[in-house]
Write a structure and sequence with these properties.
RNA-binding, Gyrase A, domain 2, Rossmann fold, Isoleucyl-tRNA Synthetase, Domain 1, 593 residues, globular
RNA sequence: GGUUCCGUAGCUCAGUUGGAUAGAGCAACAGCCUUCUAAGCUGUGGGUCGCGCGUUCGAACCGCGCCGGAAUCACCA
């Protein structure tokens, strides 16, 4: 049942019995703060006009009506203008009975909405780095959260596999690679190709320096450096589908894809559809021509096509080059239309960094002006940069944090910590590997996802590897610990699963039940705001609450009575809820650690 | 300069239809392992919620104006 709604209805009914018809949507009910006695609080200030009494008298009057009118309400107290309503413990035990009996607690009924979420979208000339990690984790997690909210989700990846950047790697490989392959070098394909991209840049700089020494201006040298001219020629050949260039392009991209697959797998993310820009970059031209005919766009003297958005507070934006070739915006327009039509989409989410806020503002506006009303259903999930303690990641300064290195380092640290604490002593080596991987990645994922996506975040390696406090491993630990309790109960043949939750319920247990009751609303809220951080912080609160309770109350060493079975069942339900929440973040939880 | 976003404890972050005395973690300090996992628990200290004005019974939250920081404003993607 929806408790907030239920309480709200009850209160509203009783207020009406006192003061006549009122607008129930104006009644403010909120959860009572911990330092006060009670479960729900009615703020009576807005009702004073109706009651024509003091805040205290009004609250008391309503409180009396409520205790009379609803058997679930066992009492109340009044502090200033706040009416704190106390619910009967049986009410919470009944809620717990519902929750523990529910298979997919927190998951919402199917909505039939089709949502595409695009994330990752890497370039094929370099390996993935920390910024991509945030992108991938966000995208995957939001997809999970949307599924939990009952939507049909299509996870899409648009690979930027064409352009001058990949040609740079190809040229450098041709010139200096000596036929190196991932097999011959033992390197991951994306790293190998990335190395040639760096190599290109080194030679390019050297050539520029040489030309400048010979008396050329720096600007001209940048254009005339032989290696750059070769890369540009290669791009032209690629566009003309030169067989040799095309074969090399396919080969090197293939290496990169193999490398990416390894990283994706390690991160635990995947896709339902993979698009390649080489196949989509010609889309959108007809859309532009259509807009041109209808006078929405205009052509400049050099033949280029623009849209004037100054009336909307933006600038003029280029949609098609003078030579008729498309730009980023052109293909994005075309891709959007194609996707919506082919997949019958109700909504489309782009997980893209906040440096492209302007681009998406324009994209939505242009589609809107073309008459596509679904432009309102495009959502740019804009996330902030990841910064390091000494500032931004800069590839020139070598401060880029490589995704594969990072993952390995996290897992290694998890292993060292676990060994130090003796956690792995009773494990087989496979179990140990699996636990270290879960913990290391759990730490990384949680560290990134617990922060509000739109905020610029600081990634401090030292802190991310901390496993204490508000971290993934803390939550995993709580889960593992509960599993351990339940294993012991099973060994002792205590059948808590079929127990009929009853008996006395401690105040701490009511607190836990209340928190469990919040789970579905939390999932819904995360779905609306596309914010995994909501889930992460919820899971942390629940674990913290349980740990505190767990510490004070023995669960196993008591008589095997109804109350003990109830506690075990509560522990079990907490563990299931924690596991469910972690699944929405893409974090695995171990049975033991 | 225009647009968008951010500013909460020494540090990293929570905090929604505006509500009571603003919360965690890290770091510091003090306790707790003979009982189910101490990756834990309990306590102490630490705040003009960037600044100012306004809206009202009431503002970290809403409005306006400043200050500070970030992104962007390419015939790059």
């Amino acid at each position: 049942m929806n408790i907030d709604q239920y309480i709200s209805d009850v209160v509203c009914r009783n207020i009406e019995s006192l003061y006549g018809k009122v607008d129930c949507s104006q009644i403010q009910i909120q959860k009572t703060r911990k330092e006060f006695e009670g479960d729900y609080t009615l703020v009576v200030f807005p009702l004073l006009k109706l009651s024509r009494k003091s805040p205290e008298a009004t609250a008391t009057e309503i409180g009396e009506a409520l205790t009379r009118g609803c058997s679930d309400i066992s009492g109340f107290n009044v502090i200033k203008g706040f009416l704190n309503i106390v619910l009967d413990k049986k009410f919470w035990v009944e809620r717990f009975r519902e929750i523990s009996a529910c298979e997919n607690y927190g998951m919402h009924a199917p909505t039939g909405r089709n949502i595409m979420i695009e994330y990752s979208s890497p370039n094929t000339n370099k390996p993935l780095h920390l910024g991509h990690v945030r992108n991938n984790l966000l995208g995957y997690s939001v997809a999970q959260i949307l599924k939990a909210n009952g939507h049909n989700v299509i996870k899409a990846n648009l690979v930027n596999d064409r352009g001058i950047h990949i040609c740079k790697s190809m040229i450098a490989w041709q010139l200096y690679g000596n036929g190196a392959t991932p097999e011959s070098t033992g390197k991951k394909g994306d790293h190998l190709v990335g190395n040639y991209y760096v190599e290109f840049d080194n030679h390019y700089k050297a050539e520029i320096a040489e030309l400048v020494n010979g008396g050329m201006s720096e600007e001209e040298a940048k254009k005339k450096a032989p290696i750059m001219l070769k890369a540009q020629e290669m791009l032209r050949k690629w566009e003309a589908k030169d067989p040799e260039v095309y074969a090399l392009w396919e080969k090197m991209n293939g290496w990169v894809y193999d490398g990416f697959d390894v990283t994706y797998k390690a991160l635990g993310v995947d896709f339902d559809k993979v698009y390649y820009e080489s196949q989509t970059y010609l889309l959108g031209k007809s859309l532009v021509e259509d807009g041109l005919r209808r006078g929405i766009f205009f052509r400049k003297e050099d033949g280029s096509v623009w849209i004037d958005l100054t009336a909307d507070g933006l600038d003029q934006k280029l949609l098609l080059r003078g030579d008729g070739t498309s730009v980023y915006m052109t293909q994005d327009l075309g891709t959007a239309l194609k996707r919506v039509e082919e997949n019958n989409l109700d909504e489309m989410i782009y997980v893209v960094g906040n440096e492209q806020n302007y681009h998406f503002q324009v994209l939505k506006l242009v589609l809107k002006k073309l008459g596509y009303d679904w432009s309102d259903e495009i959502y740019h999930l804009s996330y902030g940069m990841v910064e390091l303690p000494n500032g931004k990641m800069k590839s020139r300064e070598g401060t880029v944090v490589d995704a594969d290195d990072l993952i390995e380092k996290m897992v290694e640290t998890a292993r060292e910590m676990s060994q130090e604490l003796g956690k792995l002593d009773s494990c087989t080596s496979e179990e140990a590997d699996s636990i270290c991987r879960m913990v290391g990645l759990g730490a990384l994922k949680y560290f990134i996802l617990k922060v509000d996506p739109k905020k610029t975040m600081l990634f401090d390696p030292k802190e991310s590897i901390d496993f204490n406090g508000n971290t993934g491993p803390f939550i995993q630990y709580t889960h593992a610990r509960i599993c351990s309790i339940l294993r012991k109960a099973d060994e002792q043949c205590v059948n808590y699963r079929d127990c009929d939750a009853a008996g006395e319920c401690l105040p701490e247990e009511v607190e836990i039940i209340k928190t469990l009751c919040d789970y579905p609303a939390t999932v819904a809220s995360a779905g609306e705001t596309f914010s995994p951080s909501v889930i992460a912080n919820y899971a942390y609160d629940l674990c913290k609450l349980f740990n505190s309770y767990y510490h004070d109350h023995s669960i196993l060493h008591e008589k095997c009575d109804a109350s003990r079975r109830m506690r075990l069942k509560l522990a079990d339900t907490v563990a299931r809820t924690v596991a469910s929440a972690m699944k929405l973040l893409g974090i695995e939880v171990p049975q033991r650690m």
